[in-house]
Amino acid sequence: MPRVVSGKCRGTVLEAPKGDSTRPTTDKVKEAIFSSIQMRVPESAFLDVFSGTGQMAIEALSRGAVSAVLIDQAGKSQQVIRKNLEKTHLLESARPLKMGYMEALRLLGKEGAKFDIIFMDPPYAMAKEAASKVSTLINEYGLLNEGGIFIVESDADTEIKEIVTNMTCLKSCKYGATLVTFFLESETMCE
Question: How far is CA 49 from CA 105, 151, 187, in A?
Fold first, then answer.
């Protein structure tokens, strides 16, 4: 079961949908991601695409993010997200959206929403396609605040850095079977 690693909700065990419909980010990978962005999290607006259990947005809120939007179209995931937000007393700071990621990003864009951190952990089989589409919509709608960061989780064999356009790739890190790639706005590629 996923748990909150740090912050005001530290140690809270979160629920996950039964079965293999979701693949929650492991605590090791989650801790590595948040160690990399720890200075960016306080007072940030966080967007979690393919939210699953909601654990990444909950971790960000626990560590001081002021708001989070959690996108997942699966009914079971949305039920778990709501339960986890209630369990951590973070529901007031969060906005769960039960819709497809493209539809949700267009809605947020039309609303003029801006985020400091956008995280996505799609089903690994669709990681390249989803990263390309999400980065296109981030650019089209200006969803990232200046200096904002876009983080993509994929399987270790799926290279994402050349799929994301108009952003600088800061780094790619492998954690066992998982690859996490960090981007800022720009057209420069990873080194």
Answer: 9, 10, 23
**Average pLDDT, whole number, for the chain?**
91
The residue assigned the tokens 């270790």 is 156
Distance CA 152, CA 77 (A): 19
Instruction: Tell the burial category of 90 from Cβ atoms under 10 Å away from its Cβ (0-12, 13-18, 19+).
Output: buried
Name the one residue in this structure whose structure tokens are 């740090």.
6
pLDDT in tens, 29-61: 999 999 999 999 999 999 999 999 999 999 999
According to DSSP, residue 93 is labeled: G
Task: Give the number of other CB atoms < 10 A from CB of residue 133.
Answer: 16
pLDDT, tens digit (0-9, with 9 covering 90-100), for 106-155: 999 999 999 999 999 999 899 999 999 999 999 999 999 999 999 999 99
State the Cα–Cα distance between residues 1 and 64, nearest whole angstrom.
23
Name all domains of the chain by residue range, CATH numbers in brackets: 27-185 (3.40.50.150)
Output the CA torsion sign for 13, 14, 19, 21: negative
